[in-house]
């Protein structure tokens, strides 16, 4: 529980100091820190130095907490790559480090999608692999020799620290430093982000959230300053995002939306013009450098909104220019209205088209079968965000009430992200950062008012004016927030405050809620998001732990005992793992680009043995690998996924596979005696339960009792004609079958025609008849005989 | 036809009497008569179905056109009970879907005399129901052009429902006739949207001299919060999955508003969550208001305490609901 302490500790510090730093910010001379730092501040001559030291240490602790709370899996198991997709990323990173970058870009992987193969270099976002490869290269350059696997495992936790820093920067731009520190602490430990960035989960999202937040920070910065320098930085960060994750589409739609709304709100300025024009052109050119993206930014509907807003912005700027020259104001406003309406209609249609396209995609079975593509219940929101989900609307409220250019941006970000998160569970990831920022705003404004002493509330007016000057000098940094604060202190000067009792009660309870948040985050991370799923663990009644390492056992068996070019058929979930761990050719994998190929595998799994054998022969299958959880009660096995195989197969081969055949007449899916005969004789069923009928797991249950589905299996007498069992792992979790070659000759079902014809009676006296049957050789002998005679 | 004749030859001894009868007729007359009969039937069916896409049948018509052998067309029959006194609400829904399907076929370019849609109402052909041993309505059956209906020729209503797309898939499976279901477009959504837009436009026009309210931040903030609350309480899930409003236990009549599993939710539940989230947010805003607003200190203290109470109480309530749904969750606050 070391992580736990670190987390809650960091949280406490963050919240106390958030208040303190805020006070210090508003009244530089009066108080260095509100919460307990009063003694120190008395002798301080340079409180600004203390402030930055505090901010730095809080940020550092937040990064540390974020890093260490992601290490549960490494400590419990080992430094291992998790789940499915990370195995592919790891394999390609390995390829990159061993063969170099150009070889990686041209990589044609013949070990996947047999016999088609896959062009990997052109169909991946290379940012992740390049980042990991670069870190590995740098470390080796410094003679720190680490294996590339360790770099991959720890990449996501390291980047979560960077995400905390960029969230801090962004929130500081939006509100103030205290809120920024709180936001950094929130994002470091919030489960919605941890779910994709625990150690070992080597996936695009791990680095993409950092790129997302950093791009937004630079964008806000460039809108505020209107300098090309920041905009170019924003474009470079956007380029990194494009290279890392397909979610870059979110950025390229949100930033134009921001500009569009700013124009509607009459907040157009030269800063916006410079920022967006530069961003659009440079960002477009840079994003097209990624091979996988290519010409999409000028072709597909997702990117059209950006182009439309760009055109609109130019037209608007042109009109602004004309406005100085012309006098007919009304004509111009009318014209402007017409243009903006037309652009708005175009924009909405584009969004509508995108939405319908997305919706149609949800209904294709192969997409619907992935659990991440489901809409989100309130439980998932609460599970991933806990108290933040209830408080971030308050932050949104404060932002809209004190609106300025960059708060328009965060409001739009919040509304669009919350909509997408509602449609699809996996997009919770894009919602999480904005929720952290807005909750930090809400909490920070509460702490700002309730933490600190009433006695120190009087304020010399001279300080006030210097504060104003500060504000002007620092380039409009804290304009709105500063106003609010000034207003507060003025009025508190006039009247007495709420009293120390109420203030301390509020502070205590708020801190308690935040503590619960920290505890919740640790619990969720430890229990829900830290399972590698390659290695399973089960707990006995006395708390001891069993490690089930069947997957790696079986993959290692494949690696050691099969031919190097053997082709392994399995359901697509295990494709990346077979390629990564067993290094064997697979037919289908988690990159589900070819539905018909997957349907063919599904058809083989769901037909009877002889029909399946024909398919397997045509696909050159050598081994079949299946996952069977009936012995240990593992629910994610192939029989439970089987209906999806049938559905996907039925989508492509409706004549041969029919879903209704696999149900009982009552419409149930059962594996026991009452199950449908088609199910009981299909290949998947036979492979799963082969020899299982002889096995008695415990004395209370009959032999062949499936613990996952709690049923005694219906077909115990399973015999194979074309397959043979090659390997079954210790807990029967993985079973591998070898596909036999064709027999030398098909055994005939009728008797062979006798070669010797029925002989009539022949007297042996006449040699001629006897000779008549045997041809040339005897004729020769006859000649010899003749010669002898 | 050939198969019919082979059958005749197989049952030769039985049918010799029939043969004698046939011998009385001119040679080949039987076949010709059958052809006449067939074309007559097809013409009749075509005429009916050109008049209305679903042909209504009574017992006699059913036996003549659907059951009797000389046929070269498939017939889909819906057995139903549409009379109001039967009180079959499912039948009415099924009938609507069936009409959509039949109309799609009737007005499609592939329309031919190979497939007909018919309906038998219980009150018009009760004898048909008895004859087929049928005791539930609605039932969809397919009578193939050749042979008798098999088990798969009865549509599995319980499992796949009666959406016209499913029916079309089943028909394509049984008869090789592909029907592309064309639903008459539903204009109600568009009309509502147009009404809304014109209403808003009209309001704007009426108040064109005083457009201050567009710059009202509170209004915009409220709208934004509404979107946020709707999404975080899972209204999108409700929209896509369509869960029931609440669950009533048939045994003891208890109504449960909270779904027991963390994978699902009821509509009522999502409304409760929406209110709880809104209350907590309001508490946070009130806390802020109490500290910043000008006014009597006592009043501000009350506002502050109310805000704090809202946040703490409703959050612990929310946590307890979450705990009851997410089994094994160890933490709670104030309320168990």
TrEMBL record, chain A:
Cofactors that this protein relies on: Mn(2+); Mg(2+)
Subunit architecture: Component of the oligosaccharyltransferase (OST) complex. There are 2 OST complexes, OST-A and OST-B, which contain STT3A or STT3B as catalytic subunit, respectively. OST-A and OST-B contain common core subunits RPN1, RPN2, OST48, OST4, DAD1 and TMEM258, and OST-B contains either MAGT1 or TUSC3 as specific accessory subunit.
Domain of life: Eukaryota
Location of the region described as Disordered in the Swiss-Prot/TrEMBL record: 1-38, 454-477, 759-789
Gene behind this protein: stt3b
Residues that span the membrane, as ranges: 53-75, 119-139, 151-171, 177-195, 245-265, 272-292, 304-322, 334-358, 378-400, 407-425
Basic residues bias locations: 761-789
GO MF annotation: an example: dolichyl-diphosphooligosaccharide-protein glycotransferase activity
Membrane topology term: Multi-pass membrane protein
Name used for this protein in its record: Dolichyl-diphosphooligosaccharide--protein glycosyltransferase subunit STT3B
GO cellular component: oligosaccharyltransferase complex
Catalytically driven reaction(s): a di-trans,poly-cis-dolichyl diphosphooligosaccharide + L-asparaginyl-[protein] = N(4)-(oligosaccharide-(1->4)-N-acetyl-beta-D-glucosaminyl-(1->4)-N-acetyl-beta-D-glucosaminyl)-L-asparaginyl-[protein] + a di-trans,poly-cis-dolichyl diphosphate + H(+)
EC supergroup of this enzyme: transferase
InterPro entries: Oligo_trans_STT3, STT3-PglB_core, STT3_N
Entry keywords, A to Z: Endoplasmic reticulum, Glycoprotein, Glycosyltransferase, Magnesium, Manganese, Membrane, Metal-binding, Transferase, Transmembrane, Transmembrane helix
Lineage: Eukaryota, Metazoa, Chordata, Craniata, Vertebrata
Chief site of localization: endoplasmic reticulum
Protein localization: Endoplasmic reticulum membrane
Pathway membership, UniProt: Protein modification; protein glycosylation
Automatic annotation (TrEMBL), chain B:
Keyword Membrane attributed: yes
Signal sequence range: 1-30
Superkingdom per UniProt: Eukaryota
One Gene Ontology term from the biological process aspect of the record: magnesium ion transport
Pathway it works in: Protein modification; protein glycosylation
Keywords: Disulfide bond, Endoplasmic reticulum, Magnesium, Membrane, Signal, Transmembrane, Transmembrane helix, Transport
Transmembrane segments: 187-206, 218-237, 272-290, 302-322
Entry membrane topology: Multi-pass membrane protein
Pfam families: OST3_OST6
Compartments it resides in: Endoplasmic reticulum membrane
Main location: endoplasmic reticulum
Keyword Signal: yes
GO CC entries: oligosaccharyltransferase complex
Family of the protein in this entry: Belongs to the OST3/OST6 family.
Name of the featured protein: Tumor suppressor candidate 3
